[in-house]
Amino acid sequence: MLYVELMSKPKLLAVCYNRTLASFIQEKISTSYEQRTGKSLPGDAVEVTYYNGLLYRLAKKGLWRYQRIDGMGEEARVKLYLQELEHVRENQPDLLDAISYDAIFVDEGQDFLEDDFRLLKGLCRTSKEGGEPNLYIFYDDAQNYLGRRRPNWKSLGLNLVGARSQVMTRCFRNTRAIIEISFNVLFGRFAESPVNLPTKEFGDITTLEEKRLIEEKGDRYEVRYAVRDGQLPHLTVAQNSMEERRALIERLRWLIEEQRVRPEDILVLAHSWKRVFESARSITEAKIQSLEGVHVAKDNQDRGLRQRGYLSLSTVASAKGYDAYCTLLVASNDFTADVKGRASFYVGCTRAIEYLEVFAHERKGLVLEFERALRRFSEVSNRFLTVIRRFLP
């Protein structure tokens, strides 16, 4: 739709929940348009923003009053927006029509509440009375680190059956080792206790099994939707947090100075901003060669990650939607072994395209599970290679 020159240019919106991700999506849309048309994307072709920014912009246009989340919570806030939207629909239909979009694309849909989708649907025009809105939702259960309940699409008035719903069956970003090991940690296949583990509904396991994208193999899930092989992830467990940061510095020196990995191709992620800032200080003091500087995502959330010559550090939440050839997940003991903690850990691991290393200072919780999953994957892979060698001349 973006690549066809229309007589009447549609009003398009691409929205995500994560503020840091918006600039990245804008860059990808612009690059994709230029590759297909040989032209630069017109500045007003598509509006790209994060959800809270959208709410603020529309308040400036007079659609509603901006509601701060402080003290009321997300669910209460979106209900106020829905009430004001309905008031405008009934009393100022021309204003709503002027502000509405012909199509809305929602990235990382699992980050949104059910009422958020009702609000976005209300901002989307339909071609006729009772028609379907052009609302496109990209949704990944396994990355639901906020613990949102999957919306009841039917109650939202969205028909997601048949051709209107597609399940992506191939993962090209991560290697099979990264995906499979992280996936087994996500669902607690090597957990010491079955308490607080995600249900099969959480990641739509039934659909994945029906489509033969995963298969239960005794104590683990075998993942079949990752198309690339690659090296095993690494685990580094230090004696304490100070030694862990030293190990991180040594790994960065090795990657940047010896392996000639560009700093912008490395992401350093943690669960909390405290750990991010601790790591940033240590890296800055280390004065690694060929590193122009350190970019902490919180310092400028409207600036995209992975700037040339700079090493990006972020929480997993703020790096959602990004990826990098090398991802270093630090202070991994901070990830809790409940559903939210597991989902966040999984998101962090799957930012890695080729190289993943998990750093910790204790062998417990998800760190211990990761070690067990890593060892199990290695055992299975080695047995498979042994069988193959038997048939080689």
The CATH superfamily of the largest domain turns out to be P-loop containing nucleotide triphosphate hydrolases
CATH-defined architecture of the largest domain: 3-Layer(aba) Sandwich
The averaged pLDDT comes out at 87
* Strand numbers in spatial order across the main sheet: 9-14-13-10-12-11
CATH topology of the largest domain: Rossmann fold
Which descriptor suits the 3D outline? globular
What features would you highlight for this structure?
393 residues; alpha/beta; Rossmann fold; 3 domains; 6-stranded parallel β-sheet; 11 helices; disordered N terminus
Structure characterization notes:
It is a single chain. The chain is of the alpha/beta class. It has 3 domains: 12-164, P-loop containing nucleotide triphosphate hydrolases (Rossmann fold, 3-Layer(aba) Sandwich); 171-226, no CATH class; 231-379, P-loop containing nucleotide triphosphate hydrolases (Rossmann fold, 3-Layer(aba) Sandwich), CATH 3.40.50. It is built from 11 helices and 14 strands. The protein has helices spanning 19-37, 51-60, 74-91, 93-99, 114-122, 176-186, 205-210, 241-258, 273-286, 339-349, 366-390; strands at 12-16, 46-50, 103-106, 135-137, 171-175, 214-217, 220-223, 226-228, 234-237, 266-270, 293-296, 310-315, 324-329, 352-360. The strands form 4 sheets. The protein has a 6-stranded parallel beta sheet, with helices on both faces. It has a 4-stranded parallel beta sheet with strand order 2-1-3-4. It has a two-stranded parallel sheet with strand order 5-8. Strand 6 and strand 7 (220-223) form a beta hairpin. Helix 3 (74-91) crosses helix 4 (93-99), helix 6 (176-186) runs antiparallel to helix 10 (339-349) and helix 8 crosses helix 9 (273-286). The longest helix has 25 residues, at 366-390. The protein starts with 11 loop residues before the first strand and ends with a helix.
